[in-house]
Amino acid sequence: MRPALIITIALAATPVLAQERPPEMRGTLTSLTRVLGEAHALRQACEGREDQYWRSRMSRLMETEQPDPAFEAQLKDGFNAGFAEAKRLHPVCGDDARQAMALAAVRGREIAGKLAHAKYRVSVLPPLPEVEQEGVTAEPLPR
């Protein structure tokens, strides 16, 4: 599955307003914004600074969630921290940056699954089955 599609799925899995989410899901959303920041830095490394694909997805997430000011700052901090870390580790496009993009996509998919499961539990629907992606193994990025 392409990284863009995976994190787009994550955004589609978050229609519940941040204020309505259980407190433990706020951390999951913050993790998602960090992955979006990483993806933004990595894509810019490979596609150029003018590429705003993942930044625009972050903006869409903020519009969808409508977080209170304190949580909005936390989400933005997550995005910025992910961006800064990925830019520091992968300042130019290469095989390592492409591998990091693939790993970010895997993490984004995992987070999307958590958010989707939480959403459906809140609305008393049965949980979604786990979906495995064949042939994908991922180690976390060094922190």
Automatic annotation (TrEMBL):
Residues 1-18 form the signal peptide. This is Uncharacterized protein (TIGR02301 family). InterPro entries: CHP02301. NCBIfam families: TIGR02301 family protein. Keywords: Signal.
